[in-house]
Amino acid sequence: MATKKNQLWCGLGAGAQEALATRDYASGSFADRLSGAGVDAGSLAAADHTKAEVRDAWIPGVEIFARNIYHQRHRGVFGEFVRRDEGTLKRIGFWPGQWANARMFAQTAKGFHIHPPSIPEGEEPEAWIRRLFIDEPENYALRRYAEEQWDVMFFVQGVAEMILRDVRAGMPARTMRFFVDGDNRPGANNVGIVVPPGVAHAIRGEGSEDVIMVYGTSTSFQPEFEGRIASEVETAQLPESWARFLK
Predict the structure, then answer these.
(1) How many CB atoms lie within 10 A of CB 175?
(2) 111 exposure class (CB count in 10 Å sphere: 0-12, 13-18, 19+)
(3) Within 10 Å of residue 207's Cβ, how many Cβ atoms?
(4) Does a structural domain hold residue 111?
(5) DSSP for residue 128
(6) Within-domain flag for 24
(7) 16 occurs within a structural domain
(8) Between 191 and which of 41, 107, 117, 179 could a Cys-Cys bridge form, CB atoms 3.0 to 4.6 Å apart?
(9) Centroid of chain to Cα 5
(10) Which of 151, 43, 157, 165 has the alpha carbon at shortest distance from 104?
(11) Total number of domains constituting the chain
(12) Cβ distance 167 to 200 under 8 Å?
């Protein structure tokens, strides 16, 4: 007896019917969407952290907060990054020691980048990290901002796909994948992102527009803090004939 699928696609040849697959448009759970296809950054900024499905999928220490972007007709946009004495950075006691910017050409990617957590002398890494982010997550005075690199990131142009992966000792291996709009696209997806050390982060430009980002770091640039995991995408390969000639 013919199946419903075969009836729908009966106008195709047998070989095509055998090879045919259709996309699954089921929305799935919050955790599945966040770690899989990804979600809009605006939905994360508005997420209710009292809900178990959010807590269980979220990487501890990551902050995603809405920004104010003002569309000025016939002129452009004005966007706020963060206010020192208000909002998320005030709450967690983090103010950057250095600000920088970066441009990513269209169709390029960065990362995964990662910065090392600072573990106090005499502390076991798993126990210390658990204390910071599981046992006493709101005791922000414990955080060693001056000894380890925390990032806060903002996007002012383009659309960026961001992927975070928690690889800290003793923490669940969680993934957060989301899409952030630059200020030239005012809307709910204009957000700031705080990334703790030990959380690997990658960024990929979506579409044909360059991505411009501005970011603050808790410490000044230190090469030894700049770790890389699976970052081959950043290397521009020479044409095979060039590489052969240079050998």
Answers:
(1) 16
(2) buried
(3) 11
(4) yes
(5) H
(6) no
(7) no
(8) 41
(9) 38
(10) 157
(11) 1
(12) yes
The pair of three-digit structure tokens given for residue 189, joined into one six-digit string: 């997806």
| Contact between 149 and 129 (Cβ < 8 Å) | no
- Per DSSP (E only), the strands in 120-210 are 151-157, 159-166, 175-181, 191-195, 199-206
Tell me, yes or no, whether 188 lies in a domain. yes
* Cα–Cα distance, 49 to 46 (Å, whole number): 9
pLDDT tens track, the chain, 247 positions: 456 666 888 899 989 988 888 777 667 889 999 999 999 999 999 999 999 999 999 999 999 999 999 988 888 889 999 999 999 999 999 999 999 999 999 999 998 999 999 999 999 999 999 999 999 999 999 999 999 999 999 999 999 999 999 999 999 999 999 999 999 999 999 999 999 999 999 999 998 999 999 999 999 988 888 899 988 888 878 889 998 989 8
Burial (CB count within 10 angstroms: exposed 0-12, middle 13-18, buried 19+), residue 16: exposed
What does the radius of gyration of the chain's CA atoms come to, in whole angstroms?
Answer: 22
Q: What's the domain range around 137?
A: 30-236
With residue 126 as reference, give the H or E element that holds it: helix 125-130
* DSSP string covering 57-125: HSPTT-EEEE--EEEETTTEEEE----TTSHHHHHHT---SEEEEEEE-TT-EEEEEE-PPP--TT--H
Cβ atoms of residues 96 and 152 within 8 Å: yes
Give the CATH number, domain containing residue 58: 2.60.120.10
The sign one gets for the Cα dihedral 139, 192, 45, 176 is negative
DSSP 231: -
Q: Is 11 exposed, middle or buried (0-12, 13-18, 19+ CB in 10 A)?
A: exposed
